[in-house]
Amino acid sequence: MTSSAATETGATPDTPDTPEPGDSPAPADAHPAGSDTDTGAAPGTGSGSGTGAGAVVDPFDRDILPAPRNAQLLLLRSLLRPHARRVWTAAIYLLVQQAAVQVGPLLVAYAIDHAIPAVRDGRHGALIAVACGYIGCGIASGVLQRVFIRIAARVSQDVLVDLRGRIFRHAQTLSLDFHERYTSGRLIARATSDVESIRELLNDGLDELIEVVLSGIYITALLLFLDWKLGLLTLVSYGPLYLAIRSYQGRAVEAYRRRSTAIAAVIVKFTETMNGIRPVKAFRREQPNDEAFAELNARHYRANGDAILEMARYVVWSRLIANITIAGIVLWGAYRVAGGGMALGVLAAFVLYLRRLYDPIDRLGMFLNSYQSAAASLEKIAGLLAQAPTVPEPEQPVPLPARGEGVLPGREVVFDEVRFAYRTGGEVLPTFDLRIPAGQIVAVVGATGAGKSTLAKLLARFYDPTDGRVLLDGVTLCDLGRDDLRRGVVMVTQEAFLFSGTVAENITIGRPDATREEVEAAAKAIGAHDFITALPDGYDTDVRKRGGRISAGQRQLVAFARALLADPAVLILDEATSSLDVPGEQAVQHAMDTVLRGRTAVIIAHRLSTVEIADRVLVMRAGRVIEDGTPAELIADDGHFAGLHQAWQDSLV
Amino acid sequence: MTSPTSDTTAPDSPHRSTVHSLVRLWPYVRPVRVRLAVSAVVAVAASCMSLFIPLVLKWMVDGPVQDRDPGGVWLGGGLVLLLGLLEAGLFGVRRWLVARPLAGVEAAMRKDLYEHLQRLPVDFHDRWASGQLLSRATMDLQILRMFLAFPLVFLVVNGATILIGFAILFTQAWLLGLVLLAPAVPLMILCSYFETSYALAARRAQDQAGDLATLVEESVLGIRIIKAFGRHRSQANAFRRQTRELWDTEIHKARLLSNIWAVIMTLPEIAIGAALVIGSLQVADHKLSAGTLVAFLSTALALRWPVESIGFLLAMSNESATAADRYFEVRDTPVVSDTDGTGAGARPDGIRLEGVRFRYPDAPPHTAELLRGIDLHIRPGETMALVGATGCGKTSLTALLPRLHRATGGRITLDGVDTAELSGDRLRELVAVAFEEPTLFSASVRENVAMGAGPAGAGEEDVRRALAVAQCDFVDALPQGLDTQVGEQGLSLSGGQRQRLALARAVVGRPQFLVLDDPLSALDVHTEALVEAALREVLRDTTALVVAHRPSTVMLADRVALLADGRIAAVGSHADLLRDSAEYRYLMSGGTPEHDDDALSALEGSDAR
């Protein structure tokens, strides 16, 4: 939104400072390398059974994922293809518009060299033509500019909507195993700050960049046409100008990179302090934090100053080159006009054109910056979009067999020769078979990393098994459509994440068409109704707003109400009761016994109280089921479970 | 999670005048005022150079060129070169003068904001999303630095340039000057009007982009829930709706932009065209020299940007004023003054709470107090478990001890000293806390644990001892052991691991008073037993308050306090309370909250085991 007639004096809202891609509040790019193990069962912890032996670098440690060559070009092309007609129309408008803009000085030359003598001869036709031409071109350039901006905005906004949508949908389709390795921070950075840097280029730079280049070409051509000798002199100035831009770019990339790293560090420290203000205060971190922050802040101060000075240096050089060229042309031109070798009007036109030519050059460096950062962002996004989902939707979904009347609502689960290993190598679950009859409640116990969660995730089809099949009432999970799958299997996890919105909205995630009565019934069944009604606005309390203080235990109850509402055939609880107190836990057990009666359930818990309601217990160690039986049998067996159970009994009253 | 819509979380400050808001920057500008002023003078000088070049041109055209005097041409060319070199040099000087000092202003303001925020009370932070604070510390400060570098200086410079330029135009040819001046004023007004409505649209687009970012963040963070319930479609619908809204706003912005561009391109061209025609007629009539016409058109071109810029600059100043308001809104929040008492209790007396009352400052007015007169005495060296129903205020009570929140009534004493008379630092030196949700900072395991001993830190031996208490043997298996980076920027640990590190942090400094908020919730049975055994050693000579959700945690304590209805309903041993309090029984072993014979007998049955 800057005038192309801006001189440095006009230093438009200091453009050089705007592109700071690291500024978004999701400073995920600042991850040190190798910071990415995330899952409980970290892949490759020690187990050397990796496929590619030696130092295998996990590509997920870097921001740029492996993608086919030209991925970003292909992406760009596929984004623009639907708008091909608009792009061409816009290009034509711009070509005509720039032509109209550049006619002005030509008319000045014509007026001085031809119209004025003609007027002196009493012929006004030429001057009238000049007047009409000038005003006509002025209006045309304005009107065309208006049309061009609108078309260009349509294209770029449509492209952005398309791009955002692709990232969003793709991120949703990618399997959990990808999410766990890529980390949420990076994914969010792709969808926000990287899209933002492309938006910045499209909104605030690209059309101007094109205009600068286009007007440069037009003007050069006109100058060569007006007087090829002076025109050539102008061409000569492009050499040093090019060098100045290149050297600026080289240095600026470095300076901006350092600055965005520095600001990212400032942001991380800042956010961490504010989010952890309780421990900060409790452990008297204020003073040490002040010092650490001052250090980071000072580093940003220096990097910031460097970046600004880099811009200053570029401006001085480009201006010097421009002004020397102007002086040279004025000198040589005037000399030739004085000698009668050139018309005065041509010199005037040259002076006016040169001004137009060189004015936007200060900002060229900045455009190139934002172009580069957008290109880098596009590369990262292309890498993300090139990831194929490892848990694909079936092409021809198979429906679940219908339930007969009077049959239990649960469904049978079979793990058929299932084996699971991370793609990086580490085997989590060696081949095993497991059958859970419809309606059975199975508790899975074992130490952290024993493979309990993996088992649950295979059943929920968060992962697909490396070998073998998981069957629900005889249908392979991979063949189930998404809707069928989620009516069949629902999983409640330990991290009870609440989406922004009201408490009621958070519960209806379980079943979007549920009525308020059904929501309340679910909350009542789980014992969450009382605390919810005690919130400032009851079920309509916004969980992100004031007064919406919801404890970890309460969040788990909400998550549970969600699952009750969903009413699945198979329910998986992955440590979903860890923050509940005894009454909360009992409410859950009660609900299992009443509302969810007859459902197949798989319960992972480190607290054995949950096991009490189980029909069957699986004890897992190192990916294998080492004990399997009813609680009573296992206690009697005096195995691992018996020991755990004894420890638990001792911890009770 | 950042809440992108600022106005809902931030109390709106009454709108003050632009100038008034910006004047508040003075304390920060003061140290750089000389450089800033010099830079303005230099910039005016540089602008004059570009205005003088056309004058030289005129002199050349009307003088040496007309007279066919190549020597004069050399002089003119030399002058143009000199002016050009000067202009470029002065621009450089101007930027060089202010680059580092203004980056310094930005840095100083950010540092002060950070230090201020760290000292604001916890309830302030409860009210403000960290994203809101962050945008003040980054975007707003950047806007302010740019304001000092550009609008502030260039309002002066471009104003001066316009005056000088039009003075030159008028002295050359007053009629042509008038023709050119005609569109200047409407152009300035239009630009300023446009920029105001554009800024509004831009702010809206920013908010919508923020909302969209929140949606994206949530759908990534909540991916397990979305997948678990197959809710892709409703997320996608919300996403589509919001992108559509953003699209509308962006298109609206583009329309505004296209309109103002049409005006900016057309109006001056028409004026210059008119000037060209009138000028040509005058040249033809020999009322005007050809050189003057050339100089005139060239000057007009040089003045285009300054004229158009005034509106933009004014609007930017407006925006900067908003940024300044947002910044000072936070800075103006007073830090509750801290007492500097560092006294230690003369006699061991443990922790006493007397008639302590509390309500959250942001609680809706009609709600009752959360704590309504807590009386509790924890004897020296004693461990007291705190038990109560979900949401009854246990965690809030623990926050009062290290004064993370201030009690609204009553008093709390440590060894007989009223905590209100202790400085925050001293108080928190005495009282160590492990929170329910363990927060690790981006630092090594060692640093995360050692910070529990206060700013001085703790030695390797103490850290190892604390890790042993919390059964953090997993630390040795981490890639770099104690020096492994954890937290946001490092290795992510499981909930149980984080909880154990937080526990180690709480005990590393051998505090006199210890507050543990459900410290074992995420541990499995086996680890829990081990931690308990080790913790018992630590608790033997520490006065401690332990929030407990289950019997196993209560086992750590000598006595138990039952919190109900904002008061301590009962204090006693676990067995006493089991016998005497139905509510306690309910909380510890479930059943029905009322006196229920069945539940009682069932309980007795299990007791008799």
UniProtKB/TrEMBL annotation, chain A:
Residues 88-373 form the ABC transmembrane type-1 domain. Residues 1-15, 33-42 have a biased composition (Low complexity). The chain crosses the membrane at residues 87-112, 124-144, 341-358. One of its GO terms (cellular component) is plasma membrane. The keyword ATP-binding applies. Residues 413-647 form the ABC transporter domain. Belongs to the ABC transporter superfamily. Lipid exporter (TC 3.A.1.106) family. This is ATP-binding cassette, subfamily B. It comes from Actinacidiphila yanglinensis. The lineage of its organism: Bacteria, Bacillati, Actinomycetota, Actinomycetes, Kitasatosporales.
TrEMBL record, chain B:
Its main location: membrane. Residues 37-319 form the ABC transmembrane type-1 domain. The chain crosses the membrane at residues 34-53, 73-93, 146-168, 174-194, 260-282. It comes from the Bacteria. PROSITE patterns: ABC_TM1F, ABC_TRANSPORTER_1, ABC_TRANSPORTER_2. Keywords: ATP-binding, Cell membrane, Membrane, Nucleotide-binding, Transmembrane, Transmembrane helix, Transport. One of its GO terms (molecular function) is ABC-type oligopeptide transporter activity. It is a multi-pass membrane protein. It is found in: Cell membrane. GO terms for cellular component: plasma membrane. Residues 351-590 form the ABC transporter domain. SUPFAM superfamilies: ABC transporter transmembrane region, P-loop containing nucleoside triphosphate hydrolases. This is ATP-binding cassette, subfamily B. It comes from Actinacidiphila yanglinensis. The lineage of its organism: Bacteria, Bacillati, Actinomycetota, Actinomycetes, Kitasatosporales.
